[in-house]
Amino acid sequence: MSIVTTPEERFEDVPDYDYPHERVPVTDDGAEMAYVDVAGSGEETFLLMHGEPTWGVLYRKLIPTLAERGRVIVPDMLGLGRSDKYTDPDAYSFDLHYESFETLLFDELDLTDVTLVCQDWGGILGLALAGHHPERFARLVPMNTGVPDGTQEMSDAWHQFADFVESVEELPIEMLVENATATDLTDEELAAYSAPFPTEESKACARVLPFLIPQSPDDEGAATMRAAKERLAEWDKPAFVLFSDSDPITGNARDPLRELIPTAKEQPDTWIEGAMHFLQEDAGEEIAEEIVAFVDRT
Question: Is-above-0.85 flag for pTM?
């Protein structure tokens, strides 16, 4: 099965994200996941998990503030960012992504007392990991995401997005990011999102991810998410649901998520105003301050 690694020179002009990165194999065939690990200056450990079709650069505006409070780890999903990419869409599966994160976070990095900050697919996988490994996590900050177990209703905007991804011959990564942010991104910032994809075949993961979300209770991943959902319904550690107010893609998941996690209602009923799906781009510094305040409260 063909695995490709994006040449490092593709990332030379990425703005404000010049942190050293590491790579470790996370699959039986040796595919490597890349991650940034900022030592920071406090005792906290923050895990920042991105979604589709982005990568760790999405969190660049949060890292400086969070690093003042501790270690910050930002992995790239297999198939995205600096991580290795299968060129065959059939190589990707829900289980591949879930298990590769288990390998990285627990087997390789042995993370504990984690404050999880997650969005989009990073939230799906991150919340699943928290549900199945609650002993590893201290706090949850889910943003613009959900816990899909095959019984959820996806938004009209999500269906439009999935139909578009399925129909286009060339997947316009920069356009997808630009259309899901309220901020006017610079040419350099937009180029950072297409940097991981030198060829169309390297976008295989970005193309298939919408269709790996469990759409029925029998789909792969549905049982994993169902079990995580049951455990999250009994979550007794701090949780701060922090959604943007202008995201048509996942906005409908916000209230159900806040109702699901018992401790979420103990935190302020906060919205990030004027931000769209990629709220980290639209209000990264504000989000970082909200997270630090949450840590201080708990």
Answer: yes
